[in-house]
Amino acid sequence: MASELMERGRKSAAALEALLQTASTTASNPAQHDIRELAEKIICCLDRALAALHGEGADNDDATSGCPSGKRRSPPDAGAQARPKRSRRSRVIGAEMPTRVEKRSTPDDGLLWRKYGQKDILNSKYPRSAAADERLKSCSIISNWRRTYFRCTYKHDNGCKATRQVQQSEDDPSVYVVTYFGEHTCGMHAAATPTVGEHGKSPQLVINFGAGTSNGSPWLSATGNDDAGSNSSQQVPPAACSTEEEQREQKEMSVCQVESILASQPAEPISSADDSCASPDLDALVHCFDWDSCVDSLFDMELINFDEASLLQ
DNA sequence: TCAATTTGACCGAG
DNA sequence: CTCGGTCAAATTGA
């Protein structure tokens, strides 16, 4: 039911965007650009909500840009055959909460990450299948729903357990959703997250789930592009590694898209929604679609406390 | 040569 | 059986 409604909303938003696009070809009203952007955000928001309702969970994005590079052409039987058995339960079993989620215009946050895996995810535009492969061949745009996995470059050297997942937005490829797990324990966590920056172009929406924070209280913040730095800096998670170079890069980053990713959180509370009503998850989604509150949250740096949301349970 | 990336296989959960 | 997360051999590029 909720899924149906959201699907309907998404179609409407898509239609609106199409109309605006058509209109924008004839008139160059700057306001129209903003409106179009807003429409795109709506679509993206709905997509994520749908994904969450379908049990997909996380905020995904896809980090890799571009089609498969075709770098590797090893025989399929190579490798793995004599691989020693090993436990890979880590995150699944531990049910580790994401430390924070950021939406940014580039998957690059300036930190040192080593890519260790990539997956096409379920309910994706181009699911993992032969058909998907065919599509990839004929399409110059890589699947927006491919998720890439990164771990700290110094995982083995310093035992740093920080990881992150990057996924590209389906409807707005310029937006990457980066989910961080754990905090850097290597020697690189000096400067907190790249979110910080006096005038930096930082991720406009950051959700902290409390993991790794001092008070354990999850938070969400949306920061404006136009230098609302003092506010945003208060929402910064305490321990993420970042360097001055990173911050500089952040300053150079193009404007991040602001949108709700409430529906895209892999762990609680969002992802557990199967009740049709009264669920905090759906409440969050409803909040997302409540234009007044949604717009407020997008542009006025609304802080959403997930603790309060969980109380509704 | 070595570090980083790619990508199929592996593993546990559901 | 499917799926998401991870591993690690093969490969690429500096």
List the helices and strands and how they pair.
Layout: H1 2-26, H2 30-53, H3 90-94, E1 98-104, E2 113-120, H4 130-138, E3 146-152, H5 155-158, E4 163-168, E5 176-181, E6 205-208, E7 219-222, H6 229-232, H7 244-252, H8 280-289, H9 291-299, H10 306-311
Antiparallel strand pairs: 1-5, 1-6, 2-3, 3-4, 4-5, 6-7
Helix pairs in contact: 1-2
The chain binds a DNA duplex (14 and 14 nucleotides) through residues 57-58, 64, 68-81, 83, 85-93, 114-119, 121-122, 128, 147, 149, 151, 153, 163, 165.
Keywords: DNA-binding, Nucleus, Transcription, Transcription regulation
Domain WRKY: 102-184
Biased composition (Polar residues): 218-236
Protein described:
The structure is a single chain. The protein is of the alpha+beta class. The chain has one domain. The protein has ten helices and seven strands. A seven-stranded antiparallel beta sheet has the order 2-3-4-5-1-6-7. α1 packs antiparallel against α2. The longest helix is centred in the N-terminal third of the chain and has 25 residues. It is elongated and about 55 Å long. The protein binds a DNA duplex (14 and 14 nucleotides) through α3, β2 and β3.
